[in-house]
Each structure stands twice: as C-alpha cells, then as structure tokens.
C-alpha cells in the first residue's frame, strides 16, 4: 500500500464534551476569486474526510473536491467524525448517525468561533447525508443550503441495504468492523462496475487505509434497522438531493417521497447519469461538482408568492 499524506490545507482540532477530540481540515478560497461561501463536507460510513474530499490521483484533474471548490471561491472545511481518521477512537461507542450530527454541531461551532462564519453550505454523502440532514433538522440556523448525496430515508427499495441487513447481528455485536482493500473495491463493484476507473479506486483505497484499518458499525446499524432517522417536514432549508443513476442505497421512489415532504420550496432533485454510490470518485465526478456549484450559487428568490 502506498502511504498517503495531505498538503495544502490547515489542520484544526476541537473538543466534543470532555474527552473527544475532533480533527478538522481547512482549505482556503483561492485569492483573487470572488468569495462564494463556506462549504462543510460530511463523509460517509466507510472512510474519513480527507480520502473522500481531498483525494489526489495523478492524471485526474481535481480529484480533490476541496481544491475544485476553493478555486471557484469557496472556503472549504471537512471533519473526521468520532471513530474515524484522526479523531478520537477510544470510547466504547459505535459512532452512529446521531453521534455524527453531534460532531457537526461541535465542528461548526469551532469554525464559527475561528472565522465568524455562521451559516454553511453543507454537503453530506451516504450516511454523511443522514448526519447532515439530522444536523440541519436540529440546527437550521447554521445551514444556508443543504446537499444530500446518496441519501436514504426509509430504506424501502434499497437493495444494498437489503444485502447488508444479513450481517446486522454481526454489526450489533461489536463497535467496529474491519476495513481492507477488498472492501473498498466492493463499494464500486456492488451496484454497477465500471463507473469508476481503477487508478482512482486504488488511490482511494490507499488514502482510506492510511488512516483506518477498522471502521465504526453505528451508521450501518442505523441504516439497516432504525430508518427513518430524519423528518423531512422539519428540514426547512434550501435543499438539493443528488441521486446516482445506479446507486443501490438511494432508492429513487424513497427519495421522491422525502423530497415531496420538504417544506422549503427552494429545493431541487438531480439524477446523476452514469454514477453509482461514491460520486466524487466516479468517472463523471466533474458533473457532480458543477451541479453543486450551480445550487450553491443559485440566487435567492426575489418573489416568494407572499
């Protein structure tokens, strides 16, 4: 395995409670470009923040989503949830969705304290989308816009979760599960092989395994046995739902029902052609960046029907 290091950003640390340390990674907006806001990226169940959002692959421009967004004028932040990457792993805890939303509360409080930014353009993927949605439900005042990628609401029709439930007793029995290269490969092979190139998958695996050889079980337990975890009628912020064409977790009808119930009519639903689950690591990743950029820069409505 090629060891991976990260550069070009600044590491930060904050506390959650008395004994949990949370790692944050910051990349500043490019100088000379009009500032467009602050993006807070939220990772999923099977990898920490930097492998997901600051990946570098030779010959693949802007594999780092953070680099692309900083070049467009965004300040970018991401964070390792408790149990992942550089953040604390010592507690007897499985780092579930609610724990992740608590991490976001602590992380955004820290960013507000050091930068003065009070509202974030928040993007979450997979269980990170659930964490971001629950955070927005709890703290709508801190979310300017919400992007939910590879999201799941009730789980109905999600064939990947149907298969994963067969291992639920195993996930319930322990707080962590092993992570290896074969597991990373399975993320890209289970729905529709070919949506990601081999070099990107291997670089992604290197980055994940540099930081973790095991991962918390909490998000898997939640997604297999406790859905729904969020109430769309209580998420009253501008929201976009992104759904990969081949995603086996983000079942289309389930997401449409969630979308219909969102009370803020400043909302969008985007189906991403040729993409399965890990959208930033797909061959069509630039399309995802542009969809997000368009949503984040969409002007506020002048007429609201009042």
From TrEMBL:
Entries under Gene3D superfamilies matching the protein: alpha/beta hydrolase
Keyword Hydrolase recorded: yes
Keywords: Hydrolase
InterPro entries documented for this protein: AB_hydrolase_1, AB_hydrolase_fold, AB_hydrolase_sf, Hydrolase_4
Entries under Pfam families matching the protein: Hydrolase_4
Every Serine aminopeptidase S33 domain range: 60-280
Record carries keyword Hydrolase: yes
Signal sequence range: none
GO molecular function annotation: hydrolase activity
UniProt protein name: Alpha/beta fold hydrolase
Species assigned in the record: Ramlibacter albus
